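Appendix B: complex inputs.
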Amino acid sequence: MADKKKTAEKKQRNKEFFWGWVFFAPTLAGLLVLNIIPIFQTIYKSFFQVGAFGRGNRFVGLENYLEMLGDSQVWQSLVNTFVYAILEVPISIAISMVLAALLNRKIRGRSVYRTIYFLPMVAAPAAVAMVWRWLYNSEFGLLNHMLRTIGLGSINWISNPNLALVSVAIVGIWSVIGYNMVLFLAGLQEIPGDYYEAAEIDGAGPVRQFFSITLPLISPTMFFVTTTRIIAAMQVFDVIYMMIDRSNPALPRTQSLVYLFYKYSFIESNQGYGSAIVVLLLLIIMILTVIQNAAQKKWVTYN
Amino acid sequence: MKQTRRIVALVMAGMMAMGLTACEGSSGSGNTSDSSGELTVAIWDTYQEPGLKEIMEDFTAQTGIGVKIQVTPWDQYWTMMEAGATGGTLPDVFWMHSDQAAKYAEYDLLLDLSDLIASSEIADMSKYPEELVKLYQNKDGKQTAIPKDVDTVALWYNKTAFDEAEIAYPDETWTWDTFREAAKALTKADGSRYGTVFSPKSNQETYYNLIYDWGGTIISDDKTKSGWDDPRTIEAMEYIEDLISDGSMPPYTTIAENEPLALFESGKVAMCMFGSWQSDLFSNEYVLANCDVAVLPQKDGHRISIYNGLGWAAAAEGSNTENAWKLLEYLSSGEAQKKQADLGVTMSACQGTSDGFIKKNEPFNLQAYIDMRDEIVIRPYSADTVVWENMSQEMLVKAWDGTRTMADTCQEIAAQMNDSLAKEQ
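Resulting structure:
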């Protein structure tokens, strides 16, 4: 009797196991082909001097890495990448958090606002960068035109080496606010309404409610957004590639690690060196993510 | 529960980090050759597309072979080609450029046309400029592309600006000294107009010409040594440094953000050197109303234009090389070459077919481009041109914005270029 029950259970488990894999397989295949295999190929390539069109590879051991250690361009790009992340991540999170809190209330036209804020996320990044490039243009751009109309001087938004990275970060922040906001909105709606009712009875105002209830309870979402945004910000490329031209004097102070990777791998067909650069970035991102996972114990509240 | 969430978060983070490296393998789709017999043709110039489309339609009418043109902007074109070559999915027929031809030929990616040309009644390489034909030969002398067009450089000027400044228009008597004086006189103090503009990026259109006028070089004939440290090269570049310090050019930030074409077409700059492929000029309303073109100024009796020409090439491992050759053969015919010029697309490479190019683009004095063909130097190239060309363009930014002297910059470019030439060997 007991035996029979066990076999039935086993059968059931096998069936679940089978169907589980059936549903999982397409994703797994995609990950393998598009992510996991290329990642190992990239690491492999970073030990080679790769000829044009991926032919004529020659094993060079750690040569690419040693060259990278002495390449001031790589270190400057690393600094640029960090500066970009430090600008983009906190500011975009702060703005989208406030927006999400505002749009979580019952206000008229709420869904219209939500859509508007989400729109930049739908537009192609290259198109977004092109439009901003024109807005920023020092000679013919709308921003400087407005500045001149009100009697102020022109600003070289994207060709002043001290300012260009900030201009790039503004575009990055603008593009990502909507996406972060939607994630925060989802987190906010998980918070039970009675907490707020109770707080109100106790006499807590909206600001106090935000800091004592909303912020702690949204911390899991906050953790998710921070982690993914840092990773994405470290990989910044498209905005810089589209907005900062090769002859732009601000290029050395704006090019990111991924930009250098693209330059070496795809323009100068030096894939070995490009791969070494991207492996460095991968290591940095992994370290950052591990640190964040360890640090979350201190500030993330899970109910 | 807590543990699972952490694991999920960590795995997701890992996946996103990996997504970064994944882009290496995923580009380059979309240019696979069509198995239905239709030929895919890749080009990078939107302005030439309408004219080429007409020529391709003639070809289809004659042979029944369909042709699809794909336009990819220059900067992305070579990335697309590189990915296509690596993955074995090059377009059937495509434009080749002197910057890249040697590299593609070296890896046998281009269809060997020598025997096909030899047995063809239409294709005749003797009708083309010899150096241009040689440009598209590999090390063993095999022809890997058919010359498509030839381009030279001439001086465009804004007549209205000249009238305002009461200076005579540029003509064949001008020397580079005349040019410098005119540039100064045309510049307005309030910054609303500048005499001229040279960009570190437009080498073939600007400073390469001056360097050869001065008797300097960019690269030695055997492609092993840089000419950037040649005293005459440096002297020519210092002439440009003078133009910059005269204040005859816009501030460098303006040059960095705006193409010379945009500055000229908006009247911001009075004189500009442009290649004959810049067909946007020929139909621009402002340019039509205000501007014309003349031959370049000269130096000690030398009026040199850098010239170059694109080539039509086919993929060696394409799925229908037979049809691809038919198209190349057709494009090499006098008929197609003449039509290319007549439609005003560009100057054709084949001898005696360029009159149409001038007629079509009246009232501009495009004869200047033809006259510039009298003394020409092929655009400097080696097996891996892009590496040192991009390096020199980036390096020159510092000389342009004044943070470094031109002479130091040239020396540094020479040193780095010699390094990369050594790697080519």
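The longest helix of chain B spans residues 2-26.
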